[in-house]
From TrEMBL:
Keywords: Glycosidase, Hydrolase. Gene3D superfamilies: Glycoside hydrolase, family 3, N-terminal domain. The lineage of its organism: Bacteria, Pseudomonadati, Pseudomonadota, Alphaproteobacteria, Hyphomicrobiales. It holds the Pfam family Glyco_hydro_3. It is an enzyme of class 3 (hydrolase). Residues 29-291 form the Glycoside hydrolase family 3 N-terminal domain. It comes from Methylobacterium currus. GO terms for biological process: carbohydrate metabolic process; peptidoglycan turnover. Belongs to the glycosyl hydrolase 3 family. This is beta-N-acetylhexosaminidase. Transmembrane segments: none annotated. Its EC number is 3.2.1.52. One of its GO terms (molecular function) is beta-N-acetylhexosaminidase activity. InterPro entries: GH, Glyco_hydro_3_AS, Glyco_hydro_3_N, Glyco_hydro_3_N_sf, NagZ_Beta-hexosaminidase.
């Protein structure tokens, strides 16, 4: 029995209490943050310990490794990577995706070496003037077609390296006037505006295996509920207008954009149609609340989860990370 949850742990080593909890709960997967990252050997040991608790060698272990401001594995043990926007500045709309795909392939190499098989990227949000900079340079550009092209290159680079991509934040965080980690953003744009701009990159990449929801209220779609807990948005936009048939996971259920107890937040997300709940901070009391509302992974959600993992293939053995890094550095340096 597997619960429809992805959970975090508190530190770089799994405590006996955490191991016992995960063994009992049986979450579908886990997510790592900087607090969990020290050295390559330590991360390999942690990912192995997490998988041992659920008894599944292919259990998803996620990380947010975008580059720029959002990368959990960094120096001195791993290379630093540019932000999404830096690739556009370096190579423009045509050459930039090549560089971004190369960067993603290198990141996948880093992740796969330590047992991480899912990266919460690419960011497909399209910022507009006046929006909060929580997305900012994490976005590949401000043109939906350009964002889609970069997103495709990044997703393919990750998958070529044996890592599944998670596109975020569906159906779009680019217009948000607040950081959903701290407050609930409310977007006033019309459905026509959203459909022509915000939804376009997600629609173009709707064949990808996994996506993360946005904790954003879209007044034109559902005046009360953020996308994560809106059955209307998930049914009519995510599954309808965008046409996404893959696994939909929530953004972090502990973020302040959501209201109510953690149990209520999780229940609302599952009721709305999210397949998997994500809880990141490793706080035991919060995780127990989320567990109390989480269903067993079954039915369509199970089919989508199995379909996502079926897209996971081993990295090609011929890849030379040193040569790829040299090409990436040369592309970035030439533009600079």
């Amino acid at each position: 029995m597997t619960l429809a949850l992805i959970l975090g742990c508190a530190g770089p080593v799994l405590s006996p209490e955490e191991a016992a909890f995960f063994r009992e709960v049986q979450p579908w997967g886990f997510i790592l943050f900087k607090r969990n990252i020290e050295t390559p050997g330590q991360v390999r040991a942690l990912t192995a310990a997490l998988r041992e608790t659920v008894g599944r060698a292919d259990a998803p272990i996620l990380i947010d490794q975008e580059g720029g401001r959002v990368q959990r594995m960094t120096r001195p043990h791993w290379q630093a990577y540019p932000s999404g926007r830096a690739y556009l500045r370096a190579g423009g709309p045509e050459g930039g995706p090549v560089l971004a795909g190369l960067g993603a392939r290198l990141m996948a190499h880093d992740l796969a070496e330590v047992g991480i098989n899912v990266d919460c990227a690419p960011v497909l949000d399209v910022p507009v003037p006046g929006a909060h900079d929580v997305i900012g340079d994490r976005a590949y550009g401000t043109d939906p077609a350009v964002v889609a092209a970069f997103g495709r290159a990044v997703a393919e680079g990750l998958m070529a390296g044996g890592v599944l991509p998670v596109m975020k934040h569906m159906p779009g965080h680019g217009r948000a006037g607040a950081d959903s980690h701290h407050a609930l953003p409310v977007v006033e744009a019309s459905l026509d505006e959203l459909d022509a701009h915000d939804f376009r990159p997600f629609r173009a990449l709707a064949d990808l295996p996994m996506a993360m929801s946005a904790h954003v209220v879209f007044r034109a779609l559902d005046p009360e509920n953020p996308a994560t807990t809106s059955a209307t948005i998930i049914r009519e936009v995510v599954r309808g207008r965008i046409g996404f048939a893959g696994l939909l996971m929530t953004d972090d259920l502990s973020m302040n954009a959501l209201s109510g107890t953690h149990r209520e937040r999780a229940a609302a997300a599952f009721r709305a149609g999210c397949d998997i709940g994500l809880h990141c901070n490793g706080v035991r009391a919060e995780m127990e609340d989320v567990v109390a509302s989480a269903p067993v992974l079954a039915g369509e959600a199970l089919r989508r989860a199995e379909g996502a993992l079926a897209r996971l293939t081993p990295a090609a053995p011929a890849f030379d990370p040193a040569e790829a890094r040299a090409r990436l550095d040369a592309g970035l340096a030439t533009a600079a």
